[in-house]
């Protein structure tokens, strides 16, 4: 690895979620971040391009990376044939590392502590604290969902953050812990109309990710709401399916779109 390659890798890390350089020499560059626990080790193989190896305590990180970049994955890591692909790997790895359990919950606790420290003493256990926790938690959940779904709707792929909502499958008020409330698998990033329907248990998804509609939504309403046959989640994992089973049980009579 020559100095130009090292400098380029360090810049890509800084620009795409790994702003700290832990090590940099002729053999490899090791990147890290203050915003998530993952480290990235980048080397330049003799065949050219770049080889990315991820180090993380989050078990779901590598399976999610393999799902996205499976054709570019080897036992040694992820093979990037260009700087653009290395940037894509780093950006996705950083987004996942920020979103996946339990990083979102840790960020939530830190943010709550900071905001409560700015309030008058004596708010612990009051309605004020509850509202602070709910507001911060919903913000952190949305940020995590945007990271996990790459800033695009889980169904339509629409990448317009202003109209995207972070929808819980198991409602916030019914979750048994903050970790459950902030679990990115407990819901989906949805465009506003789908979010409203999902939140009111008028649509759900089967274990294959195909949309299901409540019998309370007639054909005319389906058309006006933009619900069409073939609408499917862009991907679905087993942790999603666990929460979806709870959600479908609340929806009552569901059927595919004809």
TrEMBL record:
One Pfam assignment: HNH_2
Key words of the record: Endonuclease, Hydrolase, Nuclease
Organism from which the protein derives: Duganella radicis
One annotated GO molecular function: endonuclease activity
Listed InterPro entries: HNH_nuc
Domain HNH nuclease residue range list: 153-206
Protein's name in the database: HNH endonuclease
């Amino acid at each position: 690895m020559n100095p130009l390659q090292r400098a380029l890798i360090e810049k890509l890390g800084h620009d795409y979620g790994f702003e700290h350089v832990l090590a940099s020499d002729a053999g490899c560059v090791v990147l890290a971040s203050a915003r998530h626990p993952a480290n990235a080790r980048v080397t330049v193989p003799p065949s050219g391009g770049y080889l990315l190896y991820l180090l993380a305590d989050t078990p779901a990180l590598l399976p999610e990376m393999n799902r996205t970049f499976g054709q570019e994955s080897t036992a040694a890591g992820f093979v990037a044939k260009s700087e653009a692909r290395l940037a894509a790997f780093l950006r996705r790895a950083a987004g996942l590392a920020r979103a996946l359990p339990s990083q979102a919950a840790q960020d939530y606790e830190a943010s709550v502590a900071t905001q409560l420290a700015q309030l008058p003493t004596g708010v612990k256990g009051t309605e004020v604290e509850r509202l602070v926790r709910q507001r911060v938690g919903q913000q952190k959940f949305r940020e995590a969902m945007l990271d996990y779904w790459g800033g695009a709707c889980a169904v339509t792929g629409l990448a317009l953050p202003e109209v995207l909502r972070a929808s819980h499958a198991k409602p916030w008020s019914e979750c048994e812990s903050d970790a459950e409330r902030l679990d990115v698998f407990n819901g989906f990033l949805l465009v506003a109309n789908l979010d409203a329907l999902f939140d009111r248990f008028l649509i759900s998804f089967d274990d294959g990710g195909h949309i299901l509609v409540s019998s309370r939504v007639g054909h005319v309403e389906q058309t006006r709401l933009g619900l069409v046959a073939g609408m499917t989640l862009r991907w679905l994992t087993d942790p999603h399916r666990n929460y979806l089973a709870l959600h479908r049980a609340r929806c009552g009579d569901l059927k595919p779109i004809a």
